[in-house]
Design goal:
The complex is a heterodimer. By secondary structure, chain A is mainly beta. Chain A contains 1 helix and 5 strands; from the N terminus they run ββαβββ. The longest helix of chain A has 8 residues, at about 20-30. In chain B, helix 3 (about 115-125) packs parallel to helix 4 (about 140-145), helix 4 (about 140-145) packs parallel to helix 5 and helix 6 runs parallel beside helix 8 (about 215-235). In chain B, helix 6 links the parallel strand 9 (about 185) and strand 10. Chain B has helices at about 25-35, 80-95, 115-125, 140-145, 170-175, 190-200, 210, 215-235; strands at about 5, 10, 15-20, 40-45, 70, 95-100, 130-135, 150-155, 185, 205. By secondary structure, chain B is of the alpha/beta class. Classes of the chains: A mainly beta, B alpha/beta. The interface of A and B includes residues 11, 14, 43, 67 and 68 of A.
């Protein structure tokens, strides 16, 4: 088990044991969801989640689709 | 029926585009959307609630394989946020057909056309097919077409107001001068508004609140479906000329007293 990493996720400071984006999504239980991730203002392609390491202080936006007009 | 609605590289049979906001629950969203027979539905992009990430989602009810999902930029007040939002949406679902709206203030929700044009330029260069919400201004509409938007969507009246078409003349002028589809977006409050928009020559109508806030959402969805069809048919049929005075419908000869 790696040490937990403190990141800014959707505007909140949170700590996760995940070391990359794929593990982060798994930790949140969102593997089956249609989501997208912005890491420090850059959209990360889904294919790169496994190789995108989390670093302390990363700013992550994790979004999905909701009702809207 | 061969009256195809073409937007960018997409084709549709329905000329009614629906929104997915303001419904009381997901089941009603699904039922009303099905009743509308729309093929395209707008969605908003928002943060996942990290404290409850697993709860059910709109797309559990609105199947992206069945509907063309049109992600929007609702709530964006500058070009940068709008572009970020749609880049995320494209990664989430692979959608390249998008609804751009950049708003000017929270009270009127009128578009900020300067930021809208800026965002449209960036998005078009980035490969998006942009359907753009804008004012009922023929000059701005043409500019957005020149920028490369695949559809221009002038408002009928402010978002969510249900006040109908404030300026039918402008909608007609925008349509007459356009080479891309014109979609009346915002302001439609009831079926006659939708029919009127289509009679003016609009290629489609985008409706959300009028359906979602009806007492019977599904019945209003079918009313909008029928109104859009009726208005479109009337437009294609070509309406009669108006006259100042009466003109008898029955023959004016062969009366029994002659």
């Amino acid at each position: 088990m790696s040490d937990s990493i403190a990141i800014h996720l959707n505007g909140e400071e949170r700590s996760f044991s995940a070391s990359n984006l794929m593990d982060l999504i798994a930790e949140l239980g969102l593997e089956q969801r249609m989501i997208a991730i912005e890491l420090n203002l850059e959209v990360v392609p889904k294919s790169q989640y496994g190789e995108t390491a989390l670093k302390a202080g990363d700013r992550i936006e994790l979004v999905h689709m909701i009702g809207g007009g | 029926m061969s009256d195809i609605f073409k937007v960018g590289t997409y084709t549709f049979h329905s000329r009614l585009i629906v929104g997915s906001g303001k419904y009381k629950d997901f089941q009603t969203t699904k039922d009303a959307t099905e009743a509308s027979e729309a093929e395209m539905i707008t969605v908003a992009v928002r943060r996942v609630n990290i404290t409850d990430p697993g709860k059910e989602n709109l797309l559990d009810y609105i199947d992206p394989k069945k509907y063309t999902i049109l992600p929007n930029t609702a709530g964006c007040f500058n070009a940068e946020d709008a572009v970020r939002t749609l880049r995320l949406a494209r990664e989430a679902g692979g959608w390249d057909l998008v609804k751009l709206e950049v708003l000017g203030d929270t009270e009127t929700l009128y578009p900020n056309v300067v930021e809208t044009i800026k965002a449209a330029e960036t998005l078009v260069a980035d490969g998006f097919q942009v359907m753009v919400y804008t004012n009922d201004d023929p000059i701005v509409a043409r500019r957005l077409e020149e920028v490369g938007c695949v559809a221009v969507m002038p408002l009928g009246n402010p978002i969510g107001s249900g006040r109908g078409l404030a300026n039918p003349f402008n909608i007609r002028v925008i349509k007459q001068r356009a080479n891309v589809p014109i979609v009346v977006d915002a302001g439609i409050g009831t079926a006659s508004d939708a029919a009127k928009a289509m009679e003016l020559g609009a290629d489609a109508a985008l409706i959300n609140t009028a359906i979602a806030e009806a007492k019977d959402e599904c019945l209003m969805a079918t009313a909008m479906r029928d109104a859009v069809r009726a208005g479109r048919s009337a437009f294609l049929a070509g309406r009669m000329q108006k006259r100042a005075f009466a003109n008898a419908s029955s023959p004016t000869e062969g009366y029994i007293w002659d």
